[in-house]
Amino acid sequence: MAQSLSKAFHLILIMLKNRRAIVLIVFILGVMLCFWGTSRYPALSNKAAMSGTAAFDDPMTHEAHFKVSAKAPLYEKVYYTTLNWYETNWRGMAFGLVLAGAFLTLLSYLPKTSSDRRFKNSFMGMLVGTPLGVCVNCVAPIAKGIYEASRKVETALAVMFSSPTLNIVVLTMVFTIFPLYMALLKLAATFVLILITVPFLSRVNPAPKNPVTIPPVNEVCEIETGFSDSWSSSISGAARDYWTSFRYIVIRTVPLMLLAGFLGSLLSHLWSFEHLIGLEPDFVNLSFMAFMGTFMPLPIAFDIMLAQAMMMSGLAPGFVMTLLFTLGTFSIYSAMIVYNMFSLRLAVQLYLIVCVFGVGVGYMANSYTNYKHVEWLAQYDKVMDGDDESNQKIAPSNEKLKTDSSEWTKLADSTNKRQTEPFLSLENISVESVPHNAREKTGDKNFTKLSGPDLGITYSNKITPRNFHDPLFFGRGIASGDIDRDGWADLAVATNNGFQLYHNINGKRFEVLAGPATLLTGLEGVSVALVDMDNDGWLDVFFTAFDGGNHIWLNPLGQGSQRGLIKVPNGEALLTSAIGFADLNRDGFLDIVNGNYFLGVITRTPMDNSIDQVVLNRNLKFEINELPGIPGQTHSALFSDINGDGHPDLAIGNDYQVADTYYLGNGSGQFEKITKGDGVIPVTTENTMSIDTGDIDNDLVPDIYLANIGFTKGIAVVSNIFGDDMKSAGREFCDSGESALAISECHHLLKLTTLLNPEKQNISERCTLLTDKEDVRDCMVTRMVLLAAHRKDESLCQRISQGHPEGRNLCKHYFAKNLLQFDRDKEIPYQSFFNILLHGKTDQKYEDVSKANGIETGEWSWNARFADLDNDEWQDIYVVNGVLITQEFTTNNLFHNQQGKGFNASEKEFGLYDRDHSSSYTYIDIDNDGDLDIIANTLYGPFNVYMNNDTKGNSITFKLRDEKGNKYCVGCRVTIHYGPNGERKQVREIKQSGGFHSFDAPVVHFGLGEYELVKRIDINWSDGTSSLLDHSFPVNNEYQVKRFRFPLQDKLAYANDGSNRPLF
Prior knowledge:
Blueprint: H1 2-17, H2 19-50, H3 74-108, H4 118-129, H5 136-150, H6 153-166, H7 168-177, H8 180-204, H9 231-270, H10 283-295, H11 302-312, H12 317-326, H13 332-341, H14 344-384, H15 406-412, E1 421-426, E2 429-435, E3 447-451, E4 478-481, E5 490-495, E6 498-505, E7 509-513, H16 517-520, E8 524-531, E9 540-546, E10 549-553, E11 565-568, E12 575-582, E13 591-597, E14 613-617, E15 622-626, E16 633-640, E17 649-655, E18 661-665, E19 671-673, E20 684-685, E21 690-694, E22 703-707, H17 715-721, H18 728-736, H19 743-756, H20 773-791, H21 805-815, E23 830-831, E24 836-840, E25 846-848, H22 850-853, E26 861-867, E27 876-881, E28 893-897, E29 903-905, H23 907-910, E30 921-924, E31 933-936, E32 944-948, E33 954-962, E34 973-978, E35 984-989, E36 998-999, E37 1004-1009, E38 1013-1020, E39 1026-1029, E40 1033-1034, E41 1037-1043
Parallel strand pairs: 4-36, 20-23, 33-41
Antiparallel strand pairs: 1-2, 2-41, 3-32, 4-5, 5-6, 6-7, 8-9, 9-10, 10-11, 12-13, 13-14, 14-15, 16-17, 17-18, 18-19, 21-22, 22-24, 24-25, 26-27, 27-28, 28-29, 30-31, 31-32, 33-37, 34-35, 34-38, 38-39, 38-40
């Protein structure tokens, strides 16, 4: 020990006295810090965040810079995959070459030492290689440089094996993404390979006596060089020596690098790991998997991402473990380098040894999982023993639904309606007005947060083991609208018994309103909207249920008093997650888009179970038509006129790596798909949760905002995303008291998330950690569904008793899926990580302005919609974030519009900073004071209400009613002109679509800042006609604009109650 320390100290003294060595050390440190700080670790962090969410457009890399058609010939695919591999690896490769030349030069300045302590040499090589953080391909030149300078095989090999396998980011990914036993197996096998196998191989493969090596950098005296030089001559001398070494490394490694990329690309297109899905990991199959995994020259961390993708696709654990070890540990390029610097024999030995290790750990993983599987099934049978087969459990309601129809009679006779006054009469248009209520400043910020129950919104979205599955743990929908036409916006929320209505009592509180309770019991409501489906002038309830179909409940105050639930076709889809409404054929009845969804996280690929449809409404007689395009897991469906031709167009937002689809409408209910070649939409988001249109710069051209799964925290997110036991971020949030849940409830939720996280297949998780007996049983059933899906074993569904119909049906649905294959060449490209803002241009095309406007930062975003939240004339964007499986508890975002010149993140300044997970909300003026309040769900508890108490800025609102088209004027556009000479303009479109499970009342709201008069209003009606109201409209008023079929003087249009007010 003392001798080793003495030698090390002696080498350090030599380096410190050698100015050329000092120059090289500074150079090496600078290169490493630059590479790690600006490229390697940020890139690894991004890859970590992408794991589990990213699609692979290329078999050799996570990002396809050059795309090729799936129908292209083999040589073309290989060519572009090779280019993608070069593009992805060039930074790491360049770093490896630069560092290899530097190491070779630096070590040549030091005295050659001979040491037979091969274990120590391997250990030192591991210490050097671990922090490098480059892939097995990129580290190969470095290993070569170290070997050429030191002549120590074991040191070079240890550096080569440790860099791609033991750096901190890769280890974090492995231990958070994969089950613990897999992570430990990989780590143990890596240590054995580096510290035992490598020293042994170096002993049986002694270095050649006359190796082909680099010419010495100093022909006279290698050790004395640089001791007496001046600093300037030392720098120039070190540069000359470095160039010699660098050129040597490049000549001997780059050709092999290019060849390896080509060979890997060729093999990746001749065979796919997916071919082994469903097969038994026996010796032959494991050996073949190990051979393929060892051959592939993949970028760093992509091996982890690919192994995880295969695990989530149902590849047996034995195969996954083999992949996890062999991918990234060695490659055909590494073998070439070993052959080049040492011998073919050692290259073959290393290749075969890595294969053997891969087969071994695969066998161990497979044996362990089989043992744990049998053990878990025995535990399942024990827990479920005595489960009542006849007990058809119904999801408990959080409150009792009323059924007293007399409530609706009282609503019709209510004297609390807001009274309007005649304002303007023009041919077949009448305008009435009512002042906004006075605003009250109740806090030091724009918004004050209140709890939903405090205002009478009593439903709480409780998460239990029974409903902890995709998509129910993504939250339920919310909608606002004036159900009883009393002038106050009411509320509808989706519940575990269909939906619940809440009546707005004069802007002060809400009361539960009767619904068809007996018809809704047990229906897992997901999305809900308040829309007039029979065009009788009263808002009806449209809602969708998981495994329960789509339904309309007609308003009892209109034509629905004698009707029950009306079923709306959705092609027998498991769920219509996204719904949207517009009068597509101009017959006055709102038509429907069904954005269908299957089982999301456990299916991911296109299938016929999730084909989207357009449903034409012919006075409650429905005609269903499938939409062309790749069927994805649809979260958002938006009707909006994106090309300015007066017809509703359609945007479909898909999750799970299926491109969003955009269509142009023709006004007759038919749509033409927009393709990549049309150049209309340049890019969309990969995991789209929400789509909305607005006008960010008041140029009267619509802009598009898309919410995505975004990660700004990289590796910090992946440390939580796969649900390790109550990660620190979740615990901290629960303990902070910020949650809508009590502290104990919050911690229970984290425990539930860990046990039932579908992203992490951990057979060691124990439902018995839960205390309630029914929770334990429900947890076991939910895990049985996940287990059956993961193992592709339909027989496991039969073990779920009739007493758990939800779990049994969920399991059966998984095996009823029919996967589809599509040509994606013409699909619009998508990007990962960030939300996107597309700016509309006058040529009806869009450009990506996300970075320029400062809104691309996002978390796991859901509903994101435009609204002027501070009445300053400019539309802001409010984004709600969060999902249970991350346990991240990041805040929502408010992007405050800076007068059309970008956005600032202003959630704290506005009082909207909130770390509770939300997915849907509605903009609603609860108290009719002319500013927009917000009511948002939480994924796991009561609703939150954000009351807008800002007193700055004037506003004006419009309610349009149309007897010629659909009564609530869905699809109409309102443009206002104000300011000096009417030069300032704003536009709004009345939409009942887009967002995520979120619908706003059909009310047009404009913020006007300091301006006090609107000078003209242009209305583009949904039937294609237009009206111009050239009249002054004072601000801080609500105007009800009504269009009649005939001129007012030609029909009985006025009431006979003495008020002389026009009838609707």
